[in-house]
Design a protein that fits this description.
- This protein is mainly α and 112 residues long.
- It has helices spanning 9-98, 100-111.
- It contains 2 helices and no strands.
- The longest helix is centred in the middle third of the chain and has 90 residues, at 9-98.
Length: 112
């Protein structure tokens, strides 16, 4: 055997298995890094989602407040309309009470 190495099947299998395990460990490390990166992205996305959710809730509250203000203004407008209609009706009544003949003459002149 003059310093030559002889082929040993068991040693070859061990070397192949060792290479396979090294490749597998590298793959596992790569997957761990990928998982860590995904977790960081998910955390960032969750923070953004929380922020957007809070903004939506804030907008919902503002919308509710605006709807309440609109209803209040509509009620005030309706009240003002009713007051104005009563005022016109009372003014018209007194006008006709004081000047019935002039109104009749104006009516005749307008229709002629």
């Amino acid at each position: 055997m003059n310093g030559e190495t002889t082929f040993r099947p068991a040693q070859y299998e061990r070397e192949q298995l060792s290479l396979y395990l090294q490749d597998t460990l590298k793959e596992v490390e790569t997957l761990k890094e990928s998982i860590k990166f995904q977790e960081e992205e998910n955390s960032s996305a969750n923070k953004q989602l929380d922020h957007v959710t809070k903004e939506c809730e804030k907008q919902g509250e503002e919308n509710s407040n605006l709807k309440a203000k609109i209803l209040k203004l509509e009620e005030e407008l309706q009240s003002e309309k009713q007051w104005y209609q009563r005022r016109v009706a009372v003014g018209t009544f007194f006008f006709f009470q004081q000047f019935p003949s002039r109104v009749f003459l104006l009516f005749l002149r307008g229709s002629a």
